[in-house]
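Postdoc handover notes: sequence design on the structure in folder B. Input tokens:
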């Protein structure tokens, strides 16, 4: 376990050679380390050009340095930034000088972990920082940014506050059964529990919109051998990823590639040709193709426009199916069954195909209103919270109902990382005036 008394440093910019490399420091000794390396501390939050020296007095670099006293910093601690020249030898020498002066290299995620521990952000925001760094498409960026700025945290925190009020009222019913409690407290309690359960339920039944955006949509290309599935994938990606071959059945396993369309990240999966086969390896490929089709968000069901070969049907899961007729360059008459006519060879029809993919993607991810659920960890905890709330509503015993409400609150607390139900309860009760 890392020691949070330590002052840590890490390269905040990438490790590739670049003009500037930003080294970030955080911890109580940040200011003293700046004094040691840069001679003195510049005024807070003002970039200053300084000569950085090691303990022996040798100049290591001339760099912009920033002194960022806490608590208004990313981690909440005293921090500093060194904008070095981005060469490996410079970074290495400054890192060594920092270690010699008493800092240590940070562990993965340690800056954000400190930010969380110091109350600068809740867990959903900390997770969003990682999502933002990983974001490959505009929609992932938007969603992560919104979450990092606290939209999801605020939603869950709001539910926590409501549960806390419910719990306080429930406790009052237990503690003061004979007092003159307003008669409508019990009825109000039931109505509010039902309202909250409905809200959490609606959030959970969002058709995985936010999770789909975050994880990327899964597109499976399905169809009989030789209709041009691999060629279609290559054309979509505009680079050669899949092996294109004249021999039916050459794509034996599923191949995956990432693509950003309309700002949405899509993982396109080329699957083995769907057909009955005696070849054991190919049969395994077919089995996997069917499994991919079943779990895909969107299925491109490809047929050959020249022979009107039937597109595979019936094996798909709940995903949106887009029928595609390939090799239209060989069959001048467009298909009559509503399939999108394309030619993987000439590129004809790909605009319409991309438009159809974007349209389907939007239908699967677009959401209005409150921010959507974004990851399985949140879903699991919120499901448990909703179940506890449902049990609370069905419970006749006042004590057990309070217990379920507390369980529900704890589960939501897990999502935001703001736990300590008892502490908060103490605070609420201090101001609570029923029965006084
Ligand atoms: P898969 O088995 O469905 O993945 O099919 P491939 O992508 O391996 O293609 C099978 C054959 O059809 C190859 O010889 C391709 O060059 C050819 N092919 C694929 N798409 C087209 C197309 O749009 N037009 C023509 N004329 N040939 C194509």
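Designed sequence:
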């Amino acid at each position: 376990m890392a020691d949070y008394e330590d002052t840590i440093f890490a390269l905040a910019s990438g490790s590739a050679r670049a003009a500037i490399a930003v080294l970030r420091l955080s911890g109580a000794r940040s200011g003293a380390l700046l004094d040691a390396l840069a001679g003195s501390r510049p005024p807070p939050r003002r970039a200053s050009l300084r000569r950085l020296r090691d303990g022996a007095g040798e100049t290591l670099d001339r760099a912009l340095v920033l002194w960022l006293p806490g608590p208004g910093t990313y981690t909440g601690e005293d921090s500093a930034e060194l904008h070095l020249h981005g060469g490996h030898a410079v970074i290495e020498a400054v890192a060594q000088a920092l270690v010699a002066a008493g800092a240590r290299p940070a562990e993965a995620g340690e800056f954000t972990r400190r930010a969380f521990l110091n109350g600068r952000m809740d867990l959903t925001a900390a997770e969003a920082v990682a999502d933002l760094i990983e974001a490959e498409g505009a929609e992932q960026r938007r969603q992560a940014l919104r979450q990092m700025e606290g939209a999801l945290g605020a939603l869950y925190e709001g539910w926590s506050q409501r549960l806390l009020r419910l719990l306080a009222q429930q406790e009052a019913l237990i503690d003061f059964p004979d007092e003159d409690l307003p008669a409508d407290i019990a009825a109000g309690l039931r109505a509010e529990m039902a309202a909250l359960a409905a809200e959490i339920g609606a959030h959970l039944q969002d058709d995985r919109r936010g999770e789909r955006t975050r994880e990327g949509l899964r597109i499976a290309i399905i169809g009989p051998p030789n209709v041009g599935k691999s060629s279609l994938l290559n054309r979509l990606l505009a680079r050669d990823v899949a092996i294109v071959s004249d021999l039916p059945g050459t794509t034996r396993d599923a191949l995956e590639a990432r693509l950003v369309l309309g700002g949405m990240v899509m993982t396109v999966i080329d699957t083995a040709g769907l057909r009955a086969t005696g070849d054991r390896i190919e049969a395994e490929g077919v089995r996997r193709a069917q499994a991919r089709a079943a779990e895909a968000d969107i299925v491109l069901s490809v047929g050959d426009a020249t022979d009107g070969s039937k597109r595979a049907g019936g094996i798909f899961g709940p995903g949106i199916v887009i029928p595609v007729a390939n090799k239209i360059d060989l069959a001048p008459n467009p298909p009559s069954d509503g399939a999108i006519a394309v030619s993987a060879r000439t590129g004809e029809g790909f605009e319409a195909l991309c438009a159809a993919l974007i349209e389907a993607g939007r239908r699967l991810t677009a959401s209005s209103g409150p921010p959507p659920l974004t990851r399985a960890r949140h879903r699991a905890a919120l499901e448990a919270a909703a179940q506890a709330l449902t049990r609370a509503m069905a419970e006749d015993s006042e004590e057990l109902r309070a217990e379920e409400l507390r369980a529900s609150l704890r589960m939501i607390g897990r999502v935001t990382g703001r736990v300590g139900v008892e502490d908060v309860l103490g605070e609420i009760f201090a101001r609570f005036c029923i029965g006084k």
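Context for whoever picks this up: The CA atoms of residues 303 and 310 lie 6 Å apart. Don't rerun without checking with the PI first.
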